[in-house]
UniProtKB/TrEMBL annotation:
InterPro entries: P-loop_NTPase, Spore_III_AA_AAA+_ATPase
Protein name in UniProt: AAA family ATPase
Pfam families named among the record's database cross-references: Spore_III_AA
UniProt cross-references to Gene3D superfamilies, sorted A to Z: P-loop containing nucleotide triphosphate hydrolases (3.40.50.300)
Domain Stage III sporulation protein AA AAA+ ATPase per the UniProt entry, residue ranges: 115-181
Species annotation: Thermus islandicus
Lineage, broadest ranks: Bacteria, Thermotogati, Deinococcota, Deinococci, Thermales
SUPFAM superfamilies per UniProt: P-loop containing nucleoside triphosphate hydrolases
GO molecular function terms attached to this record: ATP binding
Domain of life: Bacteria
Keywords on record: ATP-binding, Nucleotide-binding
Keyword GTP-binding in record: no
């Protein structure tokens, strides 16, 4: 089989999934009001929010970290966010049903929450289009890269492209719920692909879930 050819002048339309404004608004509702005021106007560029006890709010937007002076994060702020999320799982992560946002907490030696990281998740349609020839003509593809370079974003769109061709026979084993989002509802951008979640701890259960996908769901 030859190497697929991608036209150098190929124009790719990249867009954020149409559900994102609603998903962003749901995230803003969980934040302490003063934090929400600082970041809710950054819908198109906000990537991450860092809330650490006794420290100023830090957020990253458009690849630039910004420190908000004049106020520090309190226990009440962290409790407010935790309560509105419904708590954290054993892996110290939480999410919002049907969205790709991920919230992770930091605990001290006594198990108290002393910090929270909020990562804004977006389903970006079109980023994998340059890979479509490989996806349609070859049997496998390895995605490698350092953290925060878009691997998960790329994988989601790869699933979308494969699902266009194979429908529900595309089965995602979602180890950390980063592909389809946290909760029971898989993000609609993956439809009609199906998703299997991996119980904690993933190191012990991932192989078993992969086996179930193969044996039970005809991928």
């Amino acid at each position: 089989m030859g190497v697929p050819v991608v036209e150098a002048e190929q124009k790719i339309l990249v867009r954020v999934h149409e559900r994102f404004p609603e998903e962003f608004a749901r995230l803003m509702e969980r934040l302490p009001p003063w934090v929400r005021v600082e970041v809710e106007g950054l819908r198109d560029s906000l990537d991450e929010i860092a809330l650490d006890l006794g420290r100023p709010l830090i957020y990253t937007a458009g690849g630039e970290a910004r420190i908000v002076g004049g106020r520090t994060v309190t226990k009440d702020d962290l409790s407010y966010l935790t309560h509105r999320l419904g708590g954290f799982k054993e892996n110290n992560r939480a999410g919002l049903e049907g969205t790709l946002h991920r919230i992770s907490r930091i605990q001290d030696a006594y198990g108290e929450t002393v910090g929270v990281t909020v990562r804004v998740g977006r389903f970006v349609v079109g980023v994998a289009e340059p890979l479509r020839p490989w996806l349609e003509e070859t049997g496998s593809l390895l995605v490698v890269g350092p953290p925060r370079t878009g691997k998960t974003t790329l994988l989601r769109d790869i699933v979308r492209i494969l699902a266009e061709r194979y429908g529900p026979r595309v089965v995602v084993v979602d180890t950390s719920n980063e592909i389809g989002g946290d909760g029971k509802l898989t993000h609609p951008g993956l439809f009609p692909a199906r998703r299997l979640q991996v119980p904690d701890p993933p190191s012990k259960n991932q192989g078993w879930v992969i086996y179930q996908a193969i044996a039970n769901h005809s991928p």
